[in-house]
């Protein structure tokens, strides 16, 4: 039987006369993912579980359908989540007609609406859920592989109630009453079942008022049990070998660079996983995003007078580490603390916000670490600059299909340039001849990020 996508299902209008019986069946079937609806032109749409587990109930729906003189025109399959969302939206719209000031949605249903929304996002491999509420409706979109896709209009009541219920009951750091007109941020923990596997999800929710409503952005963080290693990131074997060699050095700075949202944190975690198990690794992070086994991960608050990066590096240095990892160097005090740690015989892995490898050097100079300081043997080990670029959808080869929401993008792959600190780099640092070094590197075949990016389309 044909399987409907959520976008296609959104175009179905629901038979009002059968809304109640479909809601009954679907609300009773939340646990086993049974759901069914009848469209106003007589098509019975149900989930696979409803066919298998509740065929009698479905026969009832069809009989009622005939009694209401709606001829049975066909059968279609759809995802239970998508069916539930449509039914709940239709019910909320109906309630609105009879009750001008609603937002009294059944609590279980509100919770379910949020879970459905997050599962829809996970199925698309989305990183964020975007909701824009005006007085009439909620506009929903997902960010998938860096692009906004799947924009649909949903019921304002259903989704506002879902957000309110989640914030009021499931958040560990939301301590106020839900108010559309207030700026608030909170975290929500969810336990979901995806593809038969239990998943723990953390949602970072940001809510802010807009001109005629409010906006909610939810960043999805999966608690990944396994950190990707360097091979799994998709780096070329020769690059992996070079990085592994750098990580065997006893001391020095290893820096991962790139703009925001380009996978620096993932790469940093992968580098840390390559370190020998016998090492004591202290990782300072704001916030902790990826659980890394065998590593002492400590939360840091970048703006805090005491718990900031620079101070926490000093504390870590007194705790006899082999390696200190800094999730982001973004101020002068942290840059100098990282330099001191490297100078005193520690390996330091860190990320920094910069365009490319030579941009990192300039950024370090700006933060007060001089070229002469970096030119000392063993202080700087390597800089890896990276960018995520779009890779074509396998199903449609980039032409656009339902699987990729017509974007043509199937995923993202990492593109890097690696600068290993050698004598030539130290000399160029001392003699302030970095542009000349970069030119000669490119002449000898070094793969600069800029030239690689020109050959592919960057991901937004
Ligand atoms: Zn496609």
Question: How would you summarize this macromolecular structure in one to three sentences?
Answer:
This protein is α/β, with parallel strands linked by helices. The protein has helices at residues 6-10, 19-28, 48-53, 55-67, 80-98, 107-123, 156-170, 237-247, 264-273, 309-317, 332-343, 357-366, 371-375, 423-430, 434-443, 449-454; strands at residues 3-4, 36-38, 43-46, 74-78, 126-133, 137-144, 147-155, 184-194, 197-210, 213-222, 252-258, 281-285, 296-299, 323-329, 347-353, 380-392, 409-420.
Provide a descriptive summary of the structure in words.
The chain folds into 3 domains: 1-102; 103-223, Beta-Lactamase (2-Layer Sandwich), CATH 3.30.450.90; 237-454, P-loop containing nucleotide triphosphate hydrolases (Rossmann fold, 3-Layer(aba) Sandwich), CATH 3.40.50.300. It contains 16 helices and 17 strands. The chain is of the alpha/beta class and 460 residues long. The strands form 3 sheets. It has a 7-stranded mixed sheet with strand order 13-12-14-15-11-16-17, with helices on both faces. Strands 7-6-5-10-9-8 form a 6-stranded antiparallel sheet. It has a 4-stranded mixed sheet with strand order 1-4-3-2, sandwiched between helices. The structure holds zinc ion (ZN). Residues 393, 395-396, 400-401, 403-404, 408 line the site of zinc ion. The site of zinc ion (ZN) has 8 residues, from loops.
